[in-house]
Amino acid sequence: MKKVVITISGILFLISLINGQPTSQVQQIVPQNENPDVSSIIDFFGLYNNKEKTANKFYFRFASLMIQQPLTPWASGTVILVKPGEGLTIKAGEVYALFYNLPLSMLIQMGKFHTDFGYINKLHKHELPTFNHPPVLYYIFNSSYANQNGTRTLTGDEPNNDVGVQISTLLPFLFYSELEVGFLNGNNATILRGGSDAINTYLLKSKNYWDISDSTELNLWFSGLSGKSPVGNAITYVGSSYLGLKIKSKTLPEFQYLKFDSEFYYRTLIDKKTVLDKLMGYYARILYEFRILYQHQIGVQFSSTIPENIKNKPIDNSLDTFLTMKIFRNTEFKFDWNANITDTKDIAHNMYLEFTFTLGPHRHLI
After folding, report:
1. For residue 123, what are the contacts with CB-CB under 8 A and spacing of at least 6?
2. Looking at the 3D structure of the chain, how many domains does it have?
3. Which end of the chain is more exposed for a tag (fewer CB within 10 A), N or C?
4. 271 is a domain residue
5. For residue 243, what are the domain limits?
6. 155-176: average pLDDT
7. What is the reported pLDDT for 7?
8. What is the pLDDT confidence band of residue 68, given thresholds at 50, 70 and 90?
9. What is the β-pairing status of strands 235-248 and 161-170?
10. In whole angstroms, what is the distance from residue 149 CA to residue 139 CA?
């Protein structure tokens, strides 16, 4: 009996290698047309801060231009140019080639892009339900973020963006499981907390999805980054564990889904078995999406960053209450009330009113 089971499992495994895994929105990408897709985003926001009275005004946050060009039935190129709110410079936010519909259900991304670490790091600011990424993500990747206090949200910096290659494939399991490896420069001074001469960084990630019922989906992801610091022989390890639960409605058409997700981060710097630095933190969020003409979201998010000694009080607690409304097809309004408590017990209240205008078929393939 065991031999029969092993033989059948082996045959199924070989079939999966030859024919690939079941299609998915991640691994199976179909270009819309042969012409380039050109789109742009313009983002403005108003700020009220109880600590920085002079900062209470409207700002031009950024403008971006995205060009996506199908190259072959299995490859495309993407260029995203970004004009930050301050200064006259235009920078290349992302420039990469994407190879899809490959054997073994592989997906390959090469160039400069948002590192596929964890869940929320991949998202751009205009894709977030909140005004910014959770503060813990900035602490994990860039310790100087903690010193910017209330004005940190005005910098417009994305969390982790690097140059390299990421390769993912589906695993032959009964549930949807994706394995990804990445080889990155590590020279953007955020992963390894070093200078521009930081050497390579390595990424390993596992994504797992389960359909608990027809209306309930469970996601469990694990990510790890590792690389050598340019200072001495110290090695940085960064880890992430993500849990997501989405519940959809079958009976109410105006109710889309209720989603709970949380992500735990851990970073340590080790030099010859001596721990030089350790930091951990998490965010947790509950989000309700509904539809009245267009999709809208409302929810609460909490983020906390904890120092090496877990008995100490968290060095940063952040609470966001947000409402995102799509007013028209190309116009989105976002309200985010944020309360931030630093290690000095200094409470800063921020209220953001953000308006995002989209022109063209703006969509990220992954």
Report:
1. 114, 133
2. 1
3. N
4. yes
5. 2-359
6. 79
7. 44
8. very high
9. unpaired
10. 12
Query: For residues 60 and 65, what is the distance between their CA atoms, to the nearest angstrom?
Result: 15
Three-class SS of residue 104? helix
- The tokens describing 185, both together, are 């420069």
pLDDT band at residue 20 under the 50/70/90 scheme: very low
Amino acid present at 146: A
Query: Which residue type is seen at 231?
Result: V
pLDDT computed for residue 154 by the predictor: 31
Contacts of 38 (CB under 8 A, 6+ apart): 65, 66, 67, 360
The 10s digit of each residue's pLDDT in 243-291 is 999 998 766 666 688 999 999 999 887 877 777 778 889 999 999 998 8
Query: Where do the DSSP E strands lie in 115-200?
Result: 161-170, 176-184
Q: Where are the beta strands (DSSP E) in the chain?
A: 37-49, 58-72, 75-84, 91-99, 107-114, 161-170, 176-184, 201-213, 216-228, 235-248, 255-271, 274-292, 294-306, 316-328, 331-342, 347-359
123: left (phi over 0), alpha (psi -120 to 50) or beta: beta
Residue 366 lies in a domain: no
CATH of the domain at 226: 2.40.160.10
- Give the H or E element holding residue 168: strand 161-170
Confidence bin at 25 (pLDDT 50/70/90): very low
Rounded Cα gap, residues 281 and 240, in angstroms: 10
In a domain, 364, yes or no: no
DSSP assignment, residue 15? H
| Domain-embedded: residue 365 | no
Amino acid at 27: Q
Q: Amino acid letter at 172?
A: P
Distances from the Cα of 44 to the Cαs of 9, 95, 131, 294, in angstroms?
55, 24, 11, 21
Between 204 and 158, name the one with better pLDDT.
Answer: 204
Contact 247, 215 (CB under 8 A): yes
Alpha carbon distance 168, 182 (integer Å): 9
Model pLDDT, residue 159: 67
β-pairing, 294-306 with 274-292?
A: antiparallel
Q: Which amino acid is at 318?
A: S
Give the pLDDT score at 5: 34
Q: 166 is written with which tokens? A: 């990421």
